[in-house]
Amino acid sequence: MPHIPSADLIEIFSSLQGEGELLGRRQVFIRFAGCNLDCDYCDTSFLSRRLCLVEENSGSGALVEYENPVTLHRVVLLLKRWLTEYPNAHHSISITGGEPLLHAELLELWLPHLRQLLPISLETNGTLPAALRLIIDHLDYVAMDVKLPSVTGQGTDWQAHADFLAVATQAQCSVKMIVDESTTDAELIRATKLVNDVSSSIPVILQPVTRHHKVAVPVPRLLALQALAAEIHPETLVIPQTHIFMGVM
Ligand code: SF4
Predict the structure, then answer these.
(1) Residue whose CA is at the smallest distance from ligand 1 atom 2
(2) Rounded distance from Cα 115 to ligand 1 centre (Å)
(3) How far is CA 76 from CA 1, 15, 88, 111, in A?
């Protein structure tokens, strides 16, 4: 694959999906560097670095280092070995970040090759619709955020989320909303209506913030938020970040 550019990656590993619609599925995670947002609750290390950490043996937890940028050829060889060693164990490849759509032009070239190995799931903050349009034909799943301003500490670009969601429905799409004690009824109603206006069948997942390895939102408040959202959009679930409790990567 001589003409395909290499990628600035943070890590590659095999683990269980701990969030959202594919909860419990074992995935290959490819984490891209960089993000266009700066959420208050962010717990992800996404800054570009010289070395990418790679779980050379799937599921071992032991990491080796690849020089950045990493070639597609090297990633494909690694994944082919994992798929041979553990047939059927992996459900899909999670393209994650940071915000992986900052690399949309590269992904447009990488994804057709990766998709020959496994279905592709994109985890995204849901704010870059033009970038999504570039790669939507190569995606099987889109797990997008709708960011609530009280939680992120930033303004929300509601129009960008709406435009993004309209494109994302070309794949199997779900929407995650991070909630905490400061989440207001008004913003949750606005976000839920935004989803329902596109389709009533898109799962909306309310994900309570995790702090110090615990769900940081009291259950009565969580249930009140779920009831409020479900009144507008019945397909509303509450799922915390389970990988943190399990202690998996
Ligand atoms: S969009 Fe995700 S990766 Fe980016 S700052 Fe927010 S939580 Fe962190």
Answers:
(1) 98
(2) 25
(3) 11, 17, 17, 11
Nearest atom in ligand 1 to the alpha carbon of residue 98 is 3
Pocket test residue of 125, 156, 161, 179 for ligand 1, highest count of atoms within 8 A of CB: 125
Number of helices (H), then strands (E), in the chain: 8, 12
Share of the chain above pLDDT 90, in %: 88
Q: What is the pLDDT of residues 182-235, one digit of tens each?
A: 999 999 999 999 999 999 999 999 999 988 888 889 999 999 999 999 999 999
CB distance 37 to ligand 1 below 6 Å: yes
Q: Tokens 């929300």 label which residue?
A: 156
Whether 46 is in the pocket of ligand 1, judged by its Cβ within 6 Å, is: yes
Homologous superfamily (CATH) for 9-176: Aldolase class I (3.20.20.70)
Q: pTM for the full model?
A: 0.96
